[in-house]
Amino acid sequence: PPAAGRAAVSGRRVALRKLGAPAAVAGLLAWAALRAVPPGGELVNRGGLGLLGDIAASALRPSLDPGFLAVVGEAAATTVALALLGTAGALVLGLLGGLVLSDAAWSSRLPWPVRAARLLLRGALVAVRSVHELVWALFLVSALGLDPLVAVLALALPFGAQSAQVFGETFDSVPGGPLRALRAAGARPGPALAYALLPGTAPLLLSYSFYRFECALRSTVVLGVAGAGGLGFELTVSLQSRNWDEVWTLVAALLVLAGLVELWSNRVRSEVAVVTCADWSVGRERGRAPS
Question: Which parts of the chain span the membrane according to its record (predicted)?
């Protein structure tokens, strides 16, 4: 019957589609492997296998020389300082950009110049965050030279653009009723946004801020390759000198920094009990109530 024939054809099409996707992925991976490894080339440099053993063995005996530990301490302090400044700049840009991009922060009817400006800003932020911070550092080094400001800007620009997107989406997730009520009551835009958007989103924004700081720590180490200083620069010097014991000491310092930031982040977030203004008011009244 014609219906049975159509069902058979449909079944073959479904089977071909199921087979087509894995075949396409396999073909893409095969092309990538051939492209990455030239014909006749070695996938692994066999001469470096012995060196890997030396590097691994050095992990058991990192450098504990007092003079070098002092250098590591100075480099770690520089890394934290650059990461803090870069994160602070990124969060300022992210908060301002998030308010501009958020639909909740604006009235439903906007004049076309404002809509065009928001669209241009959205496109500019996409372009900025599409460029890696190391590429930004290379651009800025060419213009400003080896200056600490280079590392701060290289972190603040792409991280700020990413934060603006996240903050804008976070603001849009808040119910718009309180903000509309404040506007209808005649509240100014600034206080209305502060009371309607920030309390409900504060825990999420705080958590994301700590995440950005952790990313900034790692990125600052990478930027040290471009001459930004800190642990990354000392790692580059030790790697070039093949002082593997010093390399592991620097890696341990980075791990300690990351662990301390994680502990600090968990402590602060666990103490943030304020989710909304209503929750804060209820908690305050309970604190005043006699036991």
Answer: 75-101, 134-157, 192-211, 220-241, 247-264
Q: Are residues 23 and 109 in the same domain?
A: no
Domain that holds residue 282: 65-288
Report d(CA 259, CA 109) in Å as an integer: 47
Q: Is 55 a member of any domain?
A: no
Tell me the C-alpha distance between 232 and 216, whole Å: 12
Q: Domain count of the chain? A: 2
90 with 156: CB under 8 angstroms? Answer: yes
Per-residue pLDDT of 3-24, as tens digits, reads: 555 555 566 666 667 777 788 8
Distances (CA, A) of 16 to 29, 31, 117: 20, 22, 47
Closest CA to 55 of 222, 251, 244: 244
Is residue 221 assigned to a domain?
yes
First to last CA, the chain: 82
Confidence at residue 281, expressed as pLDDT on a 0 to 100 scale: 37
**Residue 226 to residue 214: CA distance in whole angstroms:** 20
Query: For residues 284 and 98, is the Cβ–Cβ distance under 8 A?
Result: no
Q: In angstroms, rounded to a whole number, what is the distance separating the alpha carbons of residues 291 and 284? A: 14
CATH number, position 126: 1.10.3720.10
What residue has token string 């500019």? 124
Residue carrying structure tokens 């030279």: 145
**CA distances from residue 205 to 118, 157, 187 in whole angstroms, order as listed:** 22, 18, 24
Same domain, 17 and 105: no
Which regions of the chain are under pLDDT 70?
A: 1-16, 40-44, 47, 107-108, 176, 187, 189, 269, 271-291
Note whether 250 and 258 are within 8 A (CB): no
